[in-house]
Design goal:
about 350 residues, alpha/beta, two-stranded antiparallel sheet, 12 helices, 11 strands, binds NADP nicotinamide-adenine-dinucleotide phosphate
């Protein structure tokens, strides 16, 4: 399966029952010029084109990624293929220009209005297909944030609304104000806290679940172990507790069942990880559109091929215990996750 670099297009689903058709796997574009070390811009641009050829139509960015630079990088591609793809971006996290590792969350109405205009201008498009709140602002009730977002829909600046890293309760409160199309939170073989409240609420409300970092930020592919030693100095993964020191070594050992299945299936570790999260759709009878990030054409073909792998019950049982043994949090600050508020 890992050598399946064919031109087979991925299957489609809908972004919500009355929503637009989209490929069952999207593309995370953050790493194309932000967060994950040095990049090759030409190869990243070619990867975007390749994604579309393979049936990937949901492209994910945020105004925070490179403080707007990621949106600018994607703009020519989005404009050239506007009718063929869905643009998803986010507001709410503000990086300190002096020190980008320091961030604040702002969801007041003035900030949301300024953010949407900024994103539209940088993206060079008239309407954002899916506009996400990136994180909850502890100072602003979710109802107020979604109220402002709903105004953007009424004004035609935004087509559909999404939320990131909210609990099941927060999703319900938001959905009562305006329909929420998608919930984007981390979900992978290593990160399953969303299964407590967010996943059941999304299923109940018919909200599409968009798992971010489905490859555990690359760790699940086996391509690095100790982020602090192996990754370059600006790479954000160096600050994430689970990827450094003793945690990294212990967590790498947890990949053994993934490796075993990959060998048995003639697949890569990453493909097994993606197949697992994709299969949550059928297992739970809900829509799940993972957005693995890559800036390399070869990896894209490998990742989309994973949508065609179906794990059997015995294989799923082998993978099931992994997440409970993962050492170290997802972020240095646990409040940055929905689980931190449950
Ligand atoms: N809502 C949020 O708070 C939030 C947080 C994080 C991310 N996101 C979104 O989710 C997207 C995906 O998450 P992510 O990029 O953090 O993590 P990910 O998709 O789990 O992993 C991406 C990493 O894996 C590597 N990779 C991808 N395919 C691979 C393959 N087949 N073999 C080996 N390595 C592979 C990539 O490197 P290369 O690029 O070099 O291939 C990159 O370093 C982001 O791009 C962003 O749009 C959202």
């Amino acid at each position: 399966m890992s050598t399946d670099h064919s031109t087979t297009r991925i299957a489609t689903t809908r972004l919500g029952t009355d929503g637009p058709v989209t490929g069952v796997q999207g593309l995370g574009c953050m790493g194309m010029n932000f967060g994950y070390g040095p990049t090759d811009a030409d190869e990243a641009r070619a990867t975007l084109e390749r994604a579309l050829e393979l049936g990937v139509t949901l492209f994910d960015t945020a105004d925070m990624y490179g403080s707007g630079e990621n949106e600018k990088f994607l703009s020519p591609f989005f404009r050239a293929h506007r009718e063929e793809l869905l643009v998803a971006t986010k507001f709410g996290i503000v990086l300190d220009p002096e020190d980008p590792s320091r961030r604040t969350v702002r969801n007041d109405t003035a900030h949301i209005r300024k953010s949407v205009e900024g994103s539209l201008a940088r993206l060079g498009i008239d309407t954002i297909d899916l506009y996400y709140m990136h994180r909850i602002d502890p100072e602003i009730p979710i109802e107020e944030t979604v109220g402002t977002m709903a105004e953007l829909v009424a004004e035609g600046k935004v087509r559909r609304l999404g939320l990131s890293e909210v609990t099941g309760d927060e999703l319900r409160r938001a959905h009562a104000v305006h329909p929420i199309s998608a919930l984007q939170s981390e979900w992978s073989l290593f990160s399953r806290d969303v299964e407590r409240t967010a996943v059941p609420a999304a299923k109940e409300l018919g909200v599409v679940f968009v798992p971010y970092s489905p490859l555990g930020r690359g760790f699940l592919t086996g391509s690095f172990v100790a982020a602090d030693k192996e990754l370059t100095s600006g790479d954000s993964r160096r600050t994430m507790p689970r990827f450094s020191g003793d945690n990294a070594a212990a967590n790498a050992a947890l990949l053994e069942p993934v490796r075993k299945l990959a060998e048995r299936r003639g697949a890569t570790l990453g493909q097994i990880a993606l197949a697992w999260v994709q299969q949550q759709a059928t297992l739970r009878d809900m829509t799940v559109v993972p957005i693995p990030g890559t800036r390399k054409r070869s990896r894209l073909a490998e990742n989309t091929a994973a949508t065609r792998i179906e794990l059997d019950a015995e294989e799923l049982a082998l993978l099931d215990p992994i997440a409970d043994s993962v050492r170290g949090g997802r972020y240095a600050d646990p409040k940055f996750t929905s689980a931190g508020r449950e």
